[in-house]
Inverse folding.
């Protein structure tokens, strides 16, 4: 399957779940997402390395420090997301990708297309979120 075939291809509920074509599609989607994140994080690192000590106004320096702290939090979220993408890529290799961790049932191509790092079916995710809400309210 060429790169253009993968770009034009869209997984369908009408084909066998996690057939080779779907696996290749999701692998390419995950790798592309990871590359985008890495590219963004390189920009973040460049911004963080800029020396802002030359700002004479204390309010400007404070604003700059706030922006840097926000960038660091964003970078940490990106690092965690890359870890989830890598885990999804490993699941593709082991044949576990696309199946709910709780029920073992297929997650569904529409959900995976929207959230390729999903590990729970929609029903299991909703149940998990309801349980979290119940415990949070205590």
């Amino acid at each position: 399957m060429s790169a253009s075939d993968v770009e034009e291809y869209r997984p369908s509920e009408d084909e066998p779940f996690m057939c080779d074509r779907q696996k290749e599609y999701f692998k390419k989607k995950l790798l592309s997402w990871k590359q985008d994140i890495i590219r963004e994080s390189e920009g973040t690192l460049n911004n963080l390395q800029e020396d802002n000590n030359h700002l004479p106004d204390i309010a400007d320096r404070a604003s700059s420090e706030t922006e840097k702290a926000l960038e660091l939090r964003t970078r940490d979220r990106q690092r965690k997301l890359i870890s989830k993408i890598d885990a999804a890529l490993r699941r593709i290799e082991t044949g576990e990708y696309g199946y709910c961790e709780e029920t073992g049932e297929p997650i569904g191509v529409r959900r995976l297309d929207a959230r390729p790092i999903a590990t729970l079916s929609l029903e299991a995710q909703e149940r998990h979120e309801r349980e979290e809400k119940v415990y949070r309210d205590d």
Remarks:
- The radius of gyration is 20 Å.
- Residues 1-6 have pLDDT under 50 and may be disordered.
- The domain at 3-7+17-137 is CATH 1.20.120.910 (Four Helix Bundle (Hemerythrin (Met), subunit A)).
- The CA atoms of residues 46 and 95 lie 38 Å apart.
